[in-house]
């Protein structure tokens, strides 16, 4: 059987050559594209910068003076030279060793000074009551003291706002001390609520200094009790 095509007309014979030529052409174009360089025209540069060095204005250079740090001179301490004839007092160093000749005292022979206890007298039994400022020339100083205490409470009384909002009221029983120097000492209080107790303490802490009470001619500490009522209107 004869072939239908002419063997001399087979196009596949030179396909390898055409493939190599096409590949070389593509590689050449790619190399040219990567290595291609372009330059801008010279006319785009600013000719205004082409000036001579003499035309450039020089800015003044400021010179700063560097000050050296001041070093404080510390003088050595003055050494005082004593003359040979000067008398030098030497410190005597006592021995810590026990002396066997020292007399041992008995416990009964040692006198101990006991601190004198401050006398505390009740307001009812005190001979001369403390004098409130302003009651010095009044005959009945007890009545004057009570009257001045009531005036002091009314003057400094202030109902706590929180107690008003909470509806707290009642009586606060207080007791304070008038020391032997006339100042106000410990304040004790007892009431329906801590807020009212603190207000009572504040009022009594504002009491002025008084003339102390006396028992047998000696200033003593005197305790005084007074209730403070907090009533909502």
UniProtKB/TrEMBL annotation:
Keywords: Cell inner membrane, Cell membrane, Membrane, Protein transport, Transmembrane, Transmembrane helix, Transport. Residues 144-233 form the TonB C-terminal domain. GO terms for molecular function: energy transducer activity. The keyword DNA-binding does not apply. GO terms for biological process: protein transport; transmembrane transport. Its main location: membrane. It comes from Maribacter algicola. InterPro entries: TonB-dependent_transducer, TonB/TolA_C, TonB_C. It is found in: Cell inner membrane. It holds the Pfam family TonB_C. The keyword Nucleotide-binding does not apply. It is a single-pass membrane protein. SUPFAM superfamilies: TolA/TonB C-terminal domain. This is TonB family protein.
